[in-house]
TrEMBL record, chain B:
The keyword Nucleotide-binding does not apply. Residues 1-23 form the signal peptide. Residues 28-54 are annotated as: Disordered. The keyword Lyase does not apply. InterPro entries: Bact_solute-bd_prot1. SUPFAM superfamilies: Periplasmic binding protein-like II. Keywords: Signal. It comes from Cohnella silvisoli. PANTHER family: ARABINOSE-BINDING PROTEIN-RELATED, DIACETYLCHITOBIOSE BINDING PROTEIN DASA. It comes from the Bacteria. This is Extracellular solute-binding protein. Residues 31-48 have a biased composition (Low complexity).
């Protein structure tokens, strides 16, 4: 009886879920049938049913490609550095913002840093390219200090840092808001008690603030593990050029060139599938870790 | 993102010109054919006199029919009840010639190509086929599955159609469809203007400096040097990270060709074998020279990083006075230069020349599709006649067709010409430059406006150019016409060597290795030009290229052309 009643009471929730489920089934689950292309020499006119099966050929070929190692390293390096920077910067920023008492100023800063999150990489890349050209702002500033102008976007030394800095700049406002929300959840009584006990500001930070938002930090950190192989296609694609393939070519851009430009559908699907499998493993691990350290559970 | 909207507009615009212009130019060739067409449509030649007087548009007395495979028209706009197989165009062919065409099968785009290759292996061929690639044509010829059309073409092709095919000179139109001297297929035909890449210079800067247009690469370097002094914040020649591409802006096809280097094309080596142009020794010389120019600051320092929009911005802002590009760029992006600075002038030249004083320019494939006839089909002449009637109708030389109310109706709803039986777009090879030259002649008073009566495009160009002459720089569209008529059009009519690749197809190994090899190639070339690698890096590149699959590809390409 209780179960029945529960179902009746929660029916409208399920109904609200329905459109979303339909969309996911239609656009995320059904297309998964396409992964079999990874084991085929796919010919569009013959379709999945008619194309010849080649077993693991696409995968062995992928591992033999001279570029594979480089691309894998690039992807991992760029993504991991982005994750680390993507945790530290917003955290530090949120803590600083938290210390500000002027609510008006706080709000404005919060909104302004959040803005780039809404712009697409196509636009931001245009901005970045213009900032970094030889007669752009950055090089003009460098020249005040007598430095030679640098072609940042053509330099294998600068390209990766640039990707990471620009990515953090675009996205840190979003995480900052989550941290700020977590900070407001800390009970002010704890601060009062600590102050009465004679704690300094740094001590407050270490003994009240940080422990208070620890679950949020752990949660965001572990959940971002699932992104270890997502180095950001749009960003790299709109900024890179053949001169920096060596440091900037990532799995996604490579799949784009192989699959859509050279039309090797089988190989491109194989690379994408491998990436997804590794991604799945990482997501499972991160979920377990999140459950263990932050008591985060979906199921 | 390489193809912004403006670019698309230009391409459409150009296409429109070419189509509308067809009517005009054909007048030069087609005069003789028209009378016979209107008068002789009913009469069929008596058998005894057949040799002497064949009417290329003559009606068959007994119905003739053939089956065919035909590419589908995407998003086809036809009146209710009409189909790709049965529409006004096909009905007009049927009523004119008594030829009935049925479709064995149709498919769209890539799917057609795939299905076509499949049908080859099944051996079950329709009477007439549209062949999408040179490779497929070659395999049909090798398998001895198709009819030799040499005699049929000689006897039955209309003078109008022959005029189009002969407009290339030197039999270039039939280069890919002729095997051992036999014409095995009827090809389509692209305009020359699709490929020729010209050198564009700021004429006002040249005039200020009292310099002549640079004939050679060394003279070009001098001009760039002078430009740099003339406008200190200018960046020199523009470029694109894709060093060579057909019908594109900022690429350097003709610049490489001035060194006898044809990157991305297949060229004959000393022994008659085909070799890849990017690994030829001439390429090293060309790269070394470009490296020199780059180091001196005569080429945009950031050409490899900039996207096309940024290079266009340099052109528009007067930061660059030299670029390579096709004939149509006065409409975009050169018009922006004039918008920003009414004193600006651009001019096009068929330069730089190679050491023999010849301007070389690499060309895209001249044919993109063919019509072939299955071996053993009884009436190949019917196919020829259908093409005669189709071409005459398409280019507006058929008064009966043009006057028909259905034609008007189809025009109104925007029905595609591809609803005609054969998907062969046969353009007059010298269309653009001839129109420009004619408009120029009238403009300069060498001819009267009467000459423009039958040539719609030239007339339109003349009108616009005249508007520019009367009120200079008032309207950038008029200005663009003026530049095309006076500069880029005539430049394309200059004597030049149109360099065709010996092979445009794709081989098995290319499919799997091309991405690796292309990456290696573009990385190496850019590094050499930018000076991050030494010129000797080229030799390492050639070795690597060969090892990573280049040798295999070369062997396959040679096998494909029967070497």
């Amino acid at each position: 009886m209780i179960a029945m009643k529960n179902t009746r009471n929660t029916m409208h929730y399920y109904l609200m879920l329905l459109p979303g489920l339909c969309l996911i089934t239609l656009f995320s689950i059904v297309p998964m049938i396409g992964v079999v292309i990874a084991f085929q020499r796919f010919i569009p006119a013959k379709g999945i049913g008619g194309s010849p099966w080649v077993g693991w050929d696409n995968f062995t070929y992928m591992l033999q490609l001279p570029d594979s190692k480089q691309i894998f390293i690039n992807t991992l390096l760029i993504a991991v550095l982005k994750i680390i920077a993507g945790i530290i910067v917003p955290l530090a920023f949120a803590l600083m913002l938290h210390e500000i008492r002027l609510a008006f100023f706080k709000r404005i800063v919060q909104t302004v840093v959040y803005l780039p999150h809404f712009l697409s990489w196509v636009i931001l890349s245009g901005v970045i390219i213009n900032l970094l050209t030889l007669d752009g702002v950055i090089n003009a500033i460098l020249s005040w200090f007598g430095a030679e102008p640098v072609m940042f976007l053509a330099s294998n030394f600068w390209f990766r840092p640039l990707l990471i800095i620009s990515d953090v700049w675009k996205e840190f406002g979003f995480s900052t808001i989550i941290y700020l929300a977590a900070l407001t959840a800390i009970n002010p009584v704890q601060y009062e008690a600590a102050v009465i006990d004679g704690a300094s500001r740094t001590r407050l930070l270490y003994h009240v603030t940080l422990p208070g938002i620890r679950p949020t930090i752990v949660l965001l950190a572990t959940l971002s593990l699932g992104n270890v192989l997502n180095a950001g296609f749009e960003q790299v694609f709109t900024l890179y050029n053949p001169l920096v393939y060596e440091t900037a070519d990532i799995i996604d851009t490579y799949v784009y060139r192989v699959g859509l430009v050279d039309r090797q559908y089988g190989l491109a699907t194989a690379i994408g599938l491998l990436k997804s499998v590794i991604g799945l493993v990482l997501i499972v691990i991160s979920y377990r870790l999140a459950a263990k350290f932050a008591n985060y559970r979906i199921f | 993102m390489k193809k912004p909207f403006g670019k698309l507009m230009i391409v459409l615009l150009v296409f429109l010109f070419v189509l509308s212009a067809c009517s005009g130019n054909s007048g030069k060739e087609g005069g003789a054919s028209s009378p016979s067409a209107s008068g002789g449509a009913e009469s069929s030649p008596s058998p005894s006199q057949e040799e002497e007087q064949i009417d290329p548009y003559g009606k068959f007395e007994t119905p003739v029919s053939f089956t065919m495979s035909k590419p589908d028209t995407p998003d086809n706009k036809l009146p209710e009840g009409d189909t790709l197989e049965n529409n006004w165009y096909t009905r007009y062919i049927e009523q004119t010639l008594n030829v009935k065409i049925t479709h064995d099968w149709t498919a769209q785009g890539d799917a057609y190509n795939q299905k076509f290759s499949l049908s080859l292996s099944s051996g079950n061929l329709p009477d007439v086929m549209f062949v999408p690639t040179e490779k497929d044509l070659r395999s049909l010829v090798e398998a001895n599955l198709i009819e030799d059309l040499s005699d049929v073409y000689a006897k039955y092709a209309s003078p109008l159609l022959k005029g189009y095919y002969e407009s290339t000179g030197d039999g270039i139109a039939f280069k890919t469809s002729t095997f051992d001297g036999k014409l095995m297929a009827l090809p389509d035909l692209n305009v020359k203007a699709n490929g020729v890449q010209l050198l564009w210079l700021r004429q006002d800067w040249l005039d200020n400096l009292k310099l002549a247009a640079p004939k050679t690469v060394d003279e070009l370097a001098e001009v760039l040097r002078a430009f740099k002094q003339h406008v200190p914040d200018s960046v020199g020649l523009t470029g694109d990270a894709n060093l060579v591409q057909y019908n594109q802006l900022h690429t350097w096809n003709s610049l490489f060709a001035a060194f006898g280097a044809y990157p991305k094309q297949w060229v004959k080596d000393g022994n008659g074998k085909l070799a890849y142009g990017s690994v030829a020794p001439e390429m090293k010389t060309a790269l070394a020279k470009l490296r020199e120019l780059y180091a001196e600051g005569l080429i945009d320092k950031e050409f490899a990083i900039h996207k096309q929009e940024e290079e266009n911005a340099l052109i528009a802002g007067g930061k660059s006075g030299a670029m390579f590009g096709p004939w149509w760029i006065p409409w975009w992006p050169l018009n922006d230069t004039v918008k920003n600075n009414p004193k600006a002038e651009w001019a096009a030249y068929a330069f730089p020349q190679d050491s023999n004083g010849v301007f070389n320019t690499p060309m895209p494939p001249i044919n993109n599709g063919y019509i072939v006839v299955r071996k053993g089909y009884a009436h190949p002449e019917a196919v020829m006649k259908v093409l005669n009637v189709q071409q005459r109708a398409v280019v507006g030389e058929d008064p009966v067709y043009t006057a028909a109310p259905e034609t008007q109706k189809y025009k109104e709803i925007g029905a595609s010409w591809t609803n005609f039986p054969f998907n062969l777009s046969i353009a007059y090879f010298n269309q653009v430059e001839d129109d420009a030259l004619l408009a120029k002649d009238v403009l300069e008073g060498n001819k009267t406006t009467d000459a423009l009566k039958t040539v719609a495009t030239a007339k339109a160009w003349y009108d616009m150019a005249l508007a520019e002459k009367n009120e200079p720089k008032k309207d950038t569209n008029a200005w663009a016409h003026w530049v095309v008529v006076n500069s880029s059009g005539p430049a394309m009519a200059e004597p030049m060597n149109l360099h065709y690749s010996e092979f445009y197809g794709t081989t098995e190994t290319m499919l799997t290795k091309a991405s690796v090899l292309d990456k290696l190639e573009s990385e190496t070339f850019l590094r050499i030009i930018l000076g991050t690698s030494g010129t000797e890096e080229f030799d390492t590149f050639v070795d690597k290229w060969k090892k990573l699959g280049g040798d295999e590809i070369t062997a396959e390409v040679n096998a494909a052309v029967g070497n």
